[in-house]
Amino acid sequence: MGNSHGHGHHRKFRDNGNVPFPDKTAAAPSASQPVPPSIYRTQIPTSLTRTPEMANVLPYPHVDSALRALAAQAEGFGRSATGGLHGPIYFVTSLADDGPGSLRDACRKKEPLWIVFEVSGTIQLGSYLNVSSYKTIDGRGQRIKLTGKGLRLKECEHVIICNLEFEGGRGPDGDGIQIKPNSKHIWIDRCSLRDYDDGLIDITRESTDITISRCHFAQHDKTMLIGADPTHVGDRCIRVTIHHCFFDGTRQRHPRVRFGKVHLYNNYIRNWGIYAVCASVESQIYSQCNIYEAGQKKIAFKYLSEKVSTYRISCCKIHALLSCAFFQTCTLISYCIIVFFLWA
Question: What's the EC number here (predicted)?
Answer without folding.
Answer: 4.2.2.2
